[in-house]
């Protein structure tokens, strides 16, 4: 017995030492990068060193988590450690870009994540902790015995986590192209290899302090450049307050540009005007999709939130909300400062020769276009702009198109700060992506029935190898999808959570709050919710014409739209085979895509339809089949 006690004390001391070294290492990286930014040493150090620093920081954090093992911390630290699973590296990059591109409507993403943390704190965390399960798959296995629920939930978790890996690798790939000057495909492959290495090194470790360091990195990397800009522009180092001044200044600049014919009203997205880019119903749908997805997120419902007293679990979830809010409230400021920097450039009468260095740096990557051409150099921009009818010497606001995916990363350069701050952001995002993808990968491993000791050296070799094969498969699938660049990062990341919401949220709520729910109802609910969402989206994108024909009464196209659709269909039927037939079908399909919806709902907002379907099926099927309190579920 004394030997056991001595071993426990020794393990605790070792964990404390490793945690201290990890904290010191991360703080050292932050201080070093801030000094680099202060000294203006970007050119001397080189962009590639920031990539190496990001890989190295991720490796240290992963190794520390693996050495410490699964540890338990208080609500404050546990909440902080779970934030990178809620606000992943992909969301960290994408939300500022969404606000930049969509204006006010882009706030739906930040509101949805915040609402999800609150929903988790109120409805999910306390009862999940009291259930005795240490993961979502374990909870469903306890509550709904049998293979049916396990197989369906495992498939949904695997699909959604592959999409999450796609979003993360896309973000890492964009950073790699900027820092290394290599192709996007090569950067994604390099990031995927680093993710797999971190998974192997980390094993089953889930210590809170190394995970919390990811949050610290993200917060400092975003807060420092925003505080510098806020101080320089407005004399107030609190971005959440100072950016209100930027909103008003930006509105004045944009009104001035309109008066000088340097901006097209159809192009502008005022940050203080709602519902210019999405209908209110879709705004609400995105908020709901993210809220339900975060509340049911399998990589958040893990050990740091599990097997605690209900009160402590509620406090942990509340701290997740608090830490998330600190990050989320900074992101609109980042978007506003980027918008104001570009608008001010136009207001100052910038020409092709006056474009800042960052425009050409990202233009060579195809991420900045000027006058509808990639801004590779000043000569190319001048030639492109001179070819536009009625072109003047000065650039117009609509002439500059910045890819929204780079806003969260390129803010320091856009705002005229030293590139070392961009390096700090790169290290924070890379570390979060490379280490943070461990959680979604591991939850798939658990969902597919691999033992919890799979990633440890003590675990059976065959089990460990099986976990590595699953991890490699998920990473490879995510990398292949990332290379295709199917959509902006915000749409990919949101799609992952929307699928979780449609497929798992009704079953999770039933498992925690309704004793009458059984395995038949849970299985049917998952199939109905996820299946409805997939069919609806497939109909919109790939079968738009039959979709409209079958459900025209529910379409937002109205009578005029349906009449035009009918005319185009008649023209297609009457067209001669060949080019005329193909052109007629293209026109018909385009019109069908514009009205292939129910009440205007589309994209992630489809959760507005899928969730009621899932809950309804859960209730009906559970009531029509056996009571789990009286009989054994299948």
Task: Please tag this protein with its features.
73% helix, 634 residues, disordered N terminus, 3-stranded antiparallel sheet, 26 helices
The tally of strands reads 3
Helix fraction by DSSP (H/I, runs of at least 4): over 70%
If strands are numbered along the chain, what order do they take across the biggest sheet? 2-1-3
Taken as a percent bin, the fraction of beta residues is under 5%
Give the count of helical stretches.
26
- The low-confidence runs, each spanning 5 or more residues with pLDDT under 50, are 1-9, 41-45, 452-458
Average pLDDT over all residues: 87
Question: What is the makeup of the main sheet?
Answer: 3 strands, antiparallel
Series of H and E elements: HHHHHHHHHHHHHHHEEHEHHHHHHHHHH
Alpha carbon gap, first and last residue: 44 Å
Radius of gyration: 26 Å
Q: How would you describe what is shown here?
A:
The structure is a single chain. The protein is mainly alpha-helical. 73% of the residues lie in helices and 1% in strands. A three-stranded antiparallel beta sheet has the order 2-1-3. A hairpin with a 2-residue loop joins strand 1 (368-370) and strand 2 (373-374). Helix 6 (107-131) packs antiparallel against helix 13 (310-328). The model is unreliable at 1-9, 41-45 and 452-458 (pLDDT under 50).
Task: Give a nutshell description of this structure.
The chain has helices at residues 2-39, 42-45, 47-68, 75-86, 89-102, 107-131, 136-143, 147-180, 184-202, 208-234, 239-259, 280-295, 310-328, 331-347, 357-363, 378-386, 407-414, 419-436, 438-447, 461-484, 489-513, 519-542, 544-551, 558-574, 579-595, 607-624; strands at 368-370, 373-374, 400-402. It is an all-alpha fold and 634 residues long.
